[in-house]
Specification:
With about 80 residues, this protein is of the alpha+beta class. The chain contains three helices and four strands; from the N terminus they run βββαβαα.
Length: about 80
């Protein structure tokens, strides 16, 4: 399963990592991206579409945190 990550920096400004045809799409705002992704998910700040199994795998392996952090650090 593939995952696409989106960090919403501002209105009409998203940083994206992953294929457009991903089975799971994870979206989090810039303000909430500084939280631990598992915590953000439990608080309803990190949203996802598609099956939750791959998302839980990415959260537990640290992949989600790594990708979201890289998107935050990426130059606009």
């Amino acid at each position: 399963m593939t995952i696409q990550y989106r960090v919403v920096m501002a209105k009409n400004d998203e940083r994206v990592e992953g294929p457009d045809d991903a089975e799971v799409v994870v979206t989090v705002s810039k303000a909430d991206a500084v939280l631990d992704p598992s915590e953000a998910f439990m608080l309803g700040k990190l949203k996802s579409t598609g099956p939750t199994g791959p998302l839980f795998d990415a959260l537990s392996s640290g992949e989600a945190a790594r990708v979201i952090r890289a998107l935050l650090e990426r130059s606009a």
